[in-house]
Amino acid sequence: MEFLPQVIFLLLLSASGFFITKSILRIRRNILLGRDINRYDRPGERLKMMTLVALGQKKMFKRPLPAILHLFVYVGFIIINIEVLEIIIDGLFGTHRIFAPVFKGLYPSLINIFEFLAISVLVSCAIFLVRRNIIKVKRFDGEEMKRWPKLDANIILSIEIFLMICFLSMNTSDGILQTRGSEHYIATGDFFFTGFLKPLFNGLDNSELIFIERFGWWAHIIGILAFAMYVFTDSKHLHIFIAFPNTYFSKLDPAGRLSNMPEVTKEVKLMLNLPVDAGNDNAAPGRFGAKDVQDLTWKNLMEAYSCTECGRCTSQCPANLTGKKLSPRKIMMDTRDRLEEVGRNIEEKGKDHQDGKSLLGDYITVEEIMACTTCNACVEACPVNIDPVSIILQLRRFKIMEESQAPASWNGMFSNIENNFAPWKFSPSDRLNWVQKLNQ
Amino acid sequence: MSENMINVPTMADLAAKGLTPEILFWVGCAGSFDERAKSITAAFVKILNKLSVNFAVLGTEESCTGEPAKRAGNEFLFQVQAVSNIEVMNAYGIKKIVTACPHCFNTIKNEYPELGGNYEVLHHSEFLQQLINEGKIKLQGGGEFKGKKITYHDSCYLGRSNNIYEAPRKVLEILDAELVEMKRSRTKGLCCGAGGAQMFKEPEPGFKDINIERTEEAIETGAKVIAAACPFCMTMLSDGVKNKEKESDIKVYDIAELIAKYEGL
Q1: Residue B3 touches chain A, beta carbons under 8 Å
Q2: pLDDT grade, residue A106 (50/70/90)?
Q3: Between B27, B69, B194, which is nearest A414 by CB?
Q4: d(C-alpha A301, C-alpha B191), whole Å
């Protein structure tokens, strides 16, 4: 029975590890349903992009207040992991604060840093909750932000607050137990921040304090394991991991360069009686543009998983700002929802199952994609370099090239370009008539 | 032809004489056909002419870059246009292109290389800035814009698409005017509403047109001149000013027109 806590701990750790591994493989499989695209070139530039944007939070700082609060939560998350490592070792070997003898006099300073961050995380998350639910910051609202996405955000913030409360009450009771010379609670030196909380717990006897300390310890680690599993289910919180590969594989070209379709080039050159490059034969055209998630690139799909639904894109979108249905955030959320659905179909009904649904039509409407001005404001605004314009363009290509369903005025523009070599109906022979303006 | 007549050589004229110009001025469809944009073309050519820049145009051999077709999703039509234009330009051995249209600029610069068209491409704002840097256009003091409030509207296809934010502003500095920024500018600049082939269709239902929203921001600055660097933005903002019934006191000019006016051309 002596080892029971350790056995339970090991089981919990293994179960969550198993679940997380399975989830990562599922997400990876879903992302790889997308078309191939080469994003393996220029590793130096990519590393730099990832360091600046994901690690360095560069684009977050366009909005300083949320950026600082987010930085606290982010740094808190990373640094407190050192504490989690200690908890895991203690949990497996039945030790207590194994790092104290290792770090000796530095240990309290280390804990003080954790405690400072824990308080910062707690305060930041509380402010975030207020911004979402009381002040109701506009960008957290919107058609796509009802139900699950709204609940998801509140769950994440509440869990983080709960974890920090566990951590702080654990340290407070531990600190008191240390001064009382309780067995097992070795003296590590005073903890600065939870020192202020001691009066709250001073009236309790040792067994009550041990209960609080143990409860805090277990709840903290179980909470973290549960949260880690939660992140990989259907939560926007996945961004904490996937933002790194997502920024690494960013589009490095100028934002204005929209993807080329090499499979079209051969047809065009044959039509114009031009020599066709020999190497161009391998491009067997499947479907022009994208109707469903499998027609998009794996990078588009990775981006869908990277979206944390912050709405910075939508708040900058000229179409959305003037009341059109387009919301770049919804484009990303729909892509992810549809991808998850396709993934579930594969698991439950086999990989060739067709459910008769598609991203364009069942999730994203034509009205939405037609409203995009390709101005790249959404791309510029995204803190993790997501490119909704790329998806919108591919959906438009399907609508135009496969279904020939363009708005009538676009069809007019197309036929003007085809016949008059300008989007307007002017005679090509009049192209130089502007010269008359010069000498008026 | 009188002596003051400005001559616009075409590539074909020059090729017949065995000459190659330093620069191809890519006029673009708006610059060739749109009444308002034709004035921008004329202003820019007057500047080129005054500074004796060795340039030519393609004239009737020029054709739509295919940009609106590509953005509308018609990649096939885009590539037909692009490949044909590249054939023509490569046949003339063109190395350097200047254009006053950010849409043509972006497409030729960024999307033609993959189809075999590799040129040095400059937007006229960059080209004018070079002329200023070289001392060919000088700050003379005075002029009709001195001290006047001017606000510059960032074209998406210059700004966010190609990181060109400073060149047009540097060009405007020569006017000795008071440059005022709109609430949303540079990386956060608001689109005029024309990009992505929106120029060629009615907007989707909403509570406002994008160009009205942007024009209101421009009017809020108190500027009497809205400076644009794109023929599509020019159309959208001019329509916006008309919609607000401000056309008698607020003028929309292209940066080339402002420089031409400043130079007395």
Answers
A1: no
A2: confident
A3: B69
A4: 27
The β-bridge relationship of strands B178-180 and B120-123 is unpaired
Q: Residue A1 pLDDT more than 60?
A: no
Residue A210 CB contacts under 8 Å (≥ 6 apart), including other chains = A173, A177, A182
Q: CA B109, CA A262: separation in Å to the nearest integer?
A: 18
**Cβ distance A375 to A258 under 8 Å?**
no
Q: Which residues of A206-244 are buried (b: 16+ CB within 10 A; e: fewer)?
A: eeebbebbeebbbbbbbbbbbbbbbbbeebbbbbbbbbb
B75–A374: do the CB atoms touch at under 8 Å? no
Q: What is the full DSSP assignment across chain B?
A: --TTPPP--BHHHHHHTT---SEEEE-HHHHHH-HHHHHHHHHHHHHHHHTT--EEB-GGG----SHHHHHHT-HHHHHHHHHHHHHHHHHTT--EEEES-HHHHHIIIIISGGGT---EEEEHHHHHHHHHHTTSS---S-STTTT-EEEEPPPTTTHHHH---HHHHHHHHTTT-EEE--SS-GGGPPP-S-TTTGGGSPPPS-SS-HHHHHHHHHHHTT-SEEEESSHHHHHHHHHHHHHTT-TTT-EEEEHHHHHHHHTT-
Q: Is A364 helix (H, G, I), strand (E, B) or coil?
A: strand
CA neighbor of B115 nearest in space, from A35, A422, A261: A261
Band of pLDDT at residue A279, cut at 50, 70 and 90 = low
User: B149-152 and B225-228 as β-strands: parallel, antiparallel, unpaired?
Assistant: parallel
Question: From residue B66, how far is each of A66, A374, B81, B84, B106 by CA, in Å?
Answer: 42, 15, 5, 10, 11
List the single best residue of A375, A391, A404, A425 to mutate versus B (max B Cβ within 10 A): A375
**Cβ–Cβ < 8 Å for B89, B117:** yes
Residue type, position A48, single letter:
K
Place of tokens 């109906």: A425
**A306-319 b/e (C-beta count within 10 Å ≥ 16 → b):** bbbbbbbbbbbbbb
User: CA A83, CA B112: separation in Å to the nearest integer?
Assistant: 54
Quick check: B73 and A401 CB within 8 A? Answer: yes
CA quadruple A297, A300, A302, A305: dihedral sign:
negative
B202, B206, B212, B218 alpha-carbon torsion, rounded to 10°: -130
The owner of tokens 């393609």 is: B58
Give start and end residues of each alpha helix (H) in A249-294.
262-271
> Does B1 score more than 50 pLDDT?
no
Q: Tell me, what DSSP letter sits at residue A36?
A: P
From the CA of A412, how many Å to the nearest CA of chain B?
Answer: 9
pTM: 0.94
- Between CA B21 and CA A82 the distance in angstroms is 66
pLDDT band, very low/low/confident/very high, at A27 (cuts 50, 70, 90): very high
The sign of the torsion formed by the CA atoms of B32, B67, A402, A275 equals: positive
